[in-house]
């Protein structure tokens, strides 16, 4: 192989890209605009569809008592809502007004006898106001019910302990051992295994990704890399029609030299685009790509390589610039849609998920989801990375085969 000739081909391709100022719009501006707008439209997946958390407000004159503190402790840093405590009372009308005006997702009124009722073994009543038609309000209710159940069980266990029991009485403890109770709750002696029919279509996604920008940032980066390199297939057609390719052949290049030049030119453009877009997403949207830089680098390199090989193959097979543009647009839109770049694969039926994850677009975005949402690295994402490598081998092999036929023809 001739490195100087390869560098010449790369330089020619890069100058063609740089000569058209409109390319900067599709390389940088449009992906960022789509990432931002779609991220805002889809919102926060851990809550209600808005970027900010809904509010759960608690009114009561006993916020400092141990019982109320224990009740609200699990809700203080909840990912689905923000807990706000007010050391004042509120009327039911005030609570309903806040809920109807969508100021809050839930309002809890704690009466003055809450702690005393718990100590006496009674069942204190809490006044909770929520909107059954709002997802955020339902999430608040579920979390509050779980916290109340835990508080009630703890109070019941404490009431069964007889502090005056004699040590020789094996039926009762002398005092409530909080550490032992917490240990038994955290590590129960009996565990229930549950198997359900069907599936929760959003469970996998909401457990891993909390903000839609964690999807839209990487997905539109991948989409525009693929689209740009596919649409640039017409450049190879122009090289043939303008006889530029024939002039290059006067330098007696091998097929490998020309293929390497065109392929590496696409790689340079795609990697530069990926670096800028992923960097902007990290800075502008505070996107964290996970703990494995090696995995991030490998999935980007593989996807860019697949896109460059696909563009090279498309440019070799197309007869005219219009044909290359048309096919590039078709594949540039179909592959992202089927592969889960327009919307997460986790929300589509099983059969479409399998189709999506068999495509390079679906494999790449799945790796990003697993890195961002699960903290996975090379070992865990290896199947998808191998899938991208297989697509690269297939597309590049076909591109070399048809390119060789074009040169010989």
What descriptors fit this protein?
5% strand, mainly alpha, 2 domains, 409 residues, abc type-2 transporter like fold, single chain, elongated, 17 helices
Outline the structure in words.
It contains 17 helices and 4 strands. The protein is mainly alpha-helical. The chain has 2 domains: 3-45 and 205-408, no CATH class; 55-201, abc type-2 transporter like fold (3-Layer(aba) Sandwich), CATH 3.40.1710. The chain has a 4-stranded mixed β-sheet with strand order 2-1-3-4, with helices on both faces. Helix 3 links the parallel strand 1 (55-60) and strand 2 (82-86). Helix 13 (293-317) runs parallel beside helix 17 (378-408). The longest helix is centred in the last third of the chain and has 31 residues, at 378-408. It is elongated and about 90 Å long. Residues 47-51 and 195-207 have low confidence and may be disordered.
Strand content: under 5%
- Please, what is the average pLDDT? 78
Instruction: Kindly state the percentage of residues in helix.
Output: 55-70%
Total tally of structural domains: 2
Structural class estimated from helices and strands? mainly alpha
**Tally of contiguous helical segments:** 17
* Strand arrangement in the largest pleated sheet: 2-1-3-4
Low-confidence stretches: 47-51, 195-207
Radius of gyration, in Å, reads: 30 Å
Order of secondary-structure elements: HHEHEHEHEHHHHHHHHHHHH
Largest sheet: 4 strands, mixed
Distance between the termini: 21 Å
Count of extended strands: 4
Shape: elongated
